[in-house]
Amino acid sequence: MQTAPDIQELNQRIQFNSQFVDRLRNELAKVIIGQQYMVDRLLIGLLSNGHVLLEGVPGLAKTLTIKSLAQAVDGKFSRIQFTPDLLPADVIGTMIYNQSKNEFVVRRGPIFANFILADEINRAPAKVQSALLEAMQEKQVTISEHTYKLEEPFLVLATQNPLEQEGTYPLPEAQVDRFMLKVVVGYPNKNEEQLIIRQQVQGFDIPTVSKVITTKEIIECRDLVRQVYLDEKIEQYIIDIVFATRYPDQYGLSKMKNMISYGGSPRASINLALAAKAHAFMNKRGYVIPDDIKAIAKDVMRHRIGLTYEAEAENVTTENLIDDILRTIQVP
């Protein structure tokens, strides 16, 4: 258990080490107009070693944001366009015959990078998704008989289009659960869209993103994020939120019982705690408060709650259910 002096010292270290967050935001703001919410969620994923699933219609700068983040962190960026004819070897690599050496050698695929943009991930068949699953969970890739560790930091940032479902393969629950956050990317506001028009129509050169932090420093910051103090009462608050999705009637939410087909897994509790620590770190705090949990609850939970046909018939969304749970569960 950390004492008050420990937390005070941790606070000072975090205030010093988290200064790069503002610089990173400012650097990305050179090329990304608006979308601050998406940028912050990508940073939470980066700091807490979690993958992020972005859902939004085309044209909302999802690809540009991820590519710019990789440039600002000085990491290797790789983009994979998922299509129905994609093969696992196109993602992880394969064995090829080297005639001069008279032997088979490994040709590494685009998965060997720090930032993987999996564009329209739901367009690839199950075999490709399962190949990606090992990389996401185990941080390793198996090609033939050989297993290769992936370089840290390793972050999969996947996008999917919620509109067009023809020719898509819905992600299995096991894979969706591997994503720490599912972020719904919204439209820019009027002022932001006006700036976007000016930037594109006037034909000015888009500013380049400069390096703000190295991958080694990010890994060091991840260690610091895990040290952020999480009080026992906050832990209980997280558990109550997740358990309310499994046993709503025990929390006075019996009307939800017929709305939820399955609740959050233990990964929901783990990721809620880790994302809350990263959120506190980004706000230059060495301890988690309930507002950190509330801020990231929807992003962590929205893809981990299954809706029944009854809920869909009544147009109830997972966001509605999470709002009800947060209103009902007593805040410590």
Describe the structure.
The protein folds into 2 domains: 36-201, 3-Layer(aba) Sandwich (Rossmann fold), CATH 3.40.50; 228-328, Helicase, Ruva Protein, domain 3 (Orthogonal Bundle), CATH 1.10.8.80. It has helices spanning 4-17, 19-29, 36-47, 62-72, 88-92, 126-138, 173-176, 190-201, 215-226, 232-246, 266-282, 290-301, 309-313, 318-328, and strands at residues 51-55, 77-81, 93-98, 103-108, 115-119, 140-143, 146-149, 155-160, 179-184, 260-262, 306-307. Helix 3 (36-47) crosses helix 11. It is an alpha/beta fold. It contains 14 helices and 11 strands. The strands form 4 sheets. Strands 2-5-8-1-9 form a 5-stranded parallel beta sheet. A two-stranded antiparallel sheet has the order 3-4.
Could you give the topology of this structure?
Blueprint: H1 4-17, H2 19-29, H3 36-47, E1 51-55, H4 62-72, E2 77-81, H5 88-92, E3 93-98, E4 103-108, E5 115-119, H6 126-138, E6 140-143, E7 146-149, E8 155-160, H7 173-176, E9 179-184, H8 190-201, H9 215-226, H10 232-246, E10 260-262, H11 266-282, H12 290-301, E11 306-307, H13 309-313, H14 318-328
Parallel strand pairs: 1-8, 1-9, 2-5, 5-8
Antiparallel strand pairs: 3-4, 6-7, 10-11
